[in-house]
Specification:
The chain is an alpha+beta fold. Helices cover about 25% and strands about 35% of the residues.
Length: about 325
């Protein structure tokens, strides 16, 4: 017998024998056996000596309980992305530690403090200088119709993000997609002109639109509060349950709050800028034009030095 580098004995040179192709359900992986397993992540990096900003896992699923502003909780089905930085000399990370660390907190409520604890766990367990976690889910809120008294659930795509870097420290960011209707002011005036001057029926164009809102906050900011800010700014959220009287009301609402895409981002800017809990923000609005075969877009930021960028590249290639 010849002793291998991991301490386990291997037979001397002999004729090759094909291994058994069967699963041994009774095999027990002892502590000694586990120690003998190869661990490539902990070997020295033999490739190019360059640091990696993010390495981890994406889209692992888990249910969690989200506290609501009324004190109750709601179960949401989350898709989790966890990543850490990797030094130039390190070959890789133990990917399973990303999930294992998160699962240490899976029985806790999904709060900003929980996510801070997870990030601290990533920094410690994976020996990294920066770490990030992002939790994506659809957040349901019951909404009433405009006039009929019906109600239904509106679902808001949400991402709760927490990250730590040496230069910026711990940051809490909330991302929300808010869908609304945008009736064109120019089209409205032209339609009214056709009716008044030529007695010709005309319908102004409007379209389903999306504002992707990202906020960096310094205090607990319930998702419901951010939804309310968007509703208050834009007025014309799309409807869930609709009868004839609701449809008429929605037409009147759109006429009362006509908006170009520039108007939409400025209205959101005003409301977000007036909330003391929000330190920084970015809004990307996209109006899916029914007149044109292209979209109208606009981006606005608070303008904080070193804060959110107005770069539209991440959005235009993955637009709402």
């Amino acid at each position: 017998m010849i002793k291998s580098t991991n301490g386990f004995a291997r037979p001397a040179e002999h004729k090759y024998k094909k291994p058994d192709k069967q699963y041994d359900k009774d095999f027990v992986a002892t502590r000694e056996y586990v120690k003998s397993l190869p661990d490539l992540q902990n070997q020295e990096n033999s490739g190019v000596q360059v640091a990696i900003q993010h390495v981890g896992i994406h889209n692992f699923k888990i249910p969690m309980h989200l506290p609501l502003r009324d004190g109750s909780t709601r179960e949401v089905h989350c898709a989790v992305t966890g990543s850490v930085s990797l030094d130039a000399a390190q070959k890789g990370i133990n990917m399973s530690r990303i999930m294992r660390t998160f699962y240490e907190y899976d029985q806790q409520e999904l709060t900003p403090e929980t996510l801070k604890d997870v990030v601290r766990g990533y920094l410690k367990n994976l020996d990294s200088s920066s770490a990030r976690i992002a939790i994506a889910f659809d957040f349901p809120m019951q909404t009433e119709s405009l006039r009929s008294g019906l109600s239904g659930y509106q679902y808001y795509p949400v991402v709760m993000e927490t990250d730590f870097t040496a230069d910026k420290g711990m940051r809490q960011i909330l991302h929300l997609d808010f869908t609304y209707s945008s009736a064109c002011p120019c089209s409205y005036d032209l339609a009214e002109h056709a009716k008044e001057v030529r007695n010709v029926a005309a319908v102004p164009h409007s379209q389903r639109s999306v504002a992707k809102v990202s906020v960096k906050f310094n205090d607990n900011l319930p998702i419901e509060d951010l939804v309310d800010i968007c509703r208050d700014a834009l007025k014309t959220e799309t409807q869930v349950m609709v009868k004839r009287e609701d449809e008429q009301a929605f037409a009147e609402l759109n006429a009362a709050y006509l908006k170009f895409v520039e108007d939409a981002v400025r209205a959101l800017y005003q409301k977000l800028n007036n909330d003391a809990r929000i330190e920084d923000f970015r809004v990307f609005a996209s109006h899916k034009e029914s007149l044109h075969s292209h979209d109208a877009i606009s981006v606005i930021t608070k303008g904080v030095a070193g804060g959110f960028s107005a770069d539209i590249t991440p959005f235009v290639y993955n637009s709402p």
